[in-house]
Amino acid sequence: MDGMTMEGYANLIKCPLFLNHGKLDPLFSASGIQRIYEESISVNKTIRLWDDGNHCVTNHATEVITMITDWFTEVLR
Q1: Which of 24, 13, 17, 73 is nearest to 49 (CA)?
Q2: Distances (CA, A) of 54 to 25, 31, 42, 61
Q3: Partners of 45 in the beta sheet?
Q4: How many angstroms separate the Cα of 33 from the Cα of each of 12, 37, 65?
Q5: How many CA atoms lie less than 13 Å away from 67 in the CB half-sphere?
Q6: CB burial string 35-50: b at 16+ within 10 A, e below
Q7: For residue 72, is pLDDT > 90?
């Protein structure tokens, strides 16, 4: 997984961006997600990092689904 990065690409993201990530994810680091957020040039971006979240943040499924639904509703207006 070390070779899979957004280096050179994150700064090209200009569409609305929603990042939802668990800090306990063993595959992708929270610092990498934070970097994508910071390097993105999108003016409409949201990040939610869960201290106790797993890879897919399934341990907060109801909250995550609600957040995503609300985000899409707002962005698609």
Answers
A1: 24
A2: 5, 15, 26, 11
A3: 17
A4: 15, 6, 19
A5: 16
A6: ebbeebeeeebbbbbb
A7: yes
pLDDT single digits (tens) 12-70: 999 999 999 999 999 888 999 999 999 999 999 999 999 999 999 999 999 999 999 99
Tokens standing for residue 30 = 């929270």
HEC profile of the chain = CCCCCCCCCHHHCCCCEEEEEECCCCCCCHHHHHHHHHHCCCCCEEEEEECCCCCCCHHHHHHHHHHHHHHHHHHCC
Task: Dig out the tokens for 75 from the structure.
Answer: 């962005």
